[in-house]
Amino acid sequence: MSTAPRSAIFITGAAAGIGLAVAERFARAGWFVGLYDLNVEAVQAHHQRLCAAHGIAGRLDVAQASDWASAMAHFAQASGGRLDVLFNNAGVSVTRPFEQADLARHQLVVDVNLKGVINGCHTAHALLRATPGSRVINMCSASALHGQPELASYSATKAAVRSLTEALDIEWRRQGIRVVDVLPLFVDTAMVRDDVSRMKTVKMLGVRLSAEDVAATVWSLAQRKPQRLPVHTHVGLQTKFFALLSKLSPGWVNHWVTARMAGY
Predict the structure, then answer these.
(1) Which among 32, 68, 87, 154 is annotated as catalytic?
(2) How much is the pTM?
(3) How far is CA 64 from CA 2, 105, 182, in A?
(4) In the annotation, is 36 catalytic?
(5) What is the pLDDT of residues 66-103, one digit of tens each?
(6) Are 50 and 82 in contact (CB under 8 A)?
């Protein structure tokens, strides 16, 4: 008796944090999981621990189109040509006054956070189109709702990812592909603990989301029928409240952020 092929997910930035939490959640459910990251040793170890019999791991620099082509071919051969979910998660930050950060760091943020998503969507399109009910889930951020001081380049890339998500969802929906994103506020990951947490807004609002919270949202989006998928999903009550205020009173949000950064 033939066995139905496993649903398959391709995850970038899978070595730690949200990417790893998503890999763990989908591997528990029996999906075919592709873990990709610059830290190939880490994803290979996670692959052996989580899904040695139904997954694959490899190196991927999301800013490089040639890396994407190799990784996607590697994944497709192992998954039987199936790609149900592309999770564009890899990201980096720069948290300091704009002019004080090295220009090279700003450029890296654009290369990874935006160019990486464009590369991934473009490279994965053929596999996505060949898989019924497929979807792209882009890792966005509440900083896409309103530019954050000391996160200028990061905020800009996430706002661009939000717009890219909207545009591609319109273009690709008629091809049977949905494109959506998730927008959390601050998540307890190494990037936040080691870098973002020094910001005044983080100290005031706190870090109330875990990587597992975001993974649960990604899992939910992977399970919904395509026609019932929202384009944007705000993760956590704080983010939902911030999104509502940004929509109803963007001037107030601007005043609030400015005031907190000024310390009054």
Answers:
(1) 154
(2) 0.88
(3) 38, 16, 24
(4) no
(5) 999 999 999 999 999 999 999 999 999 888 889 999 99
(6) no
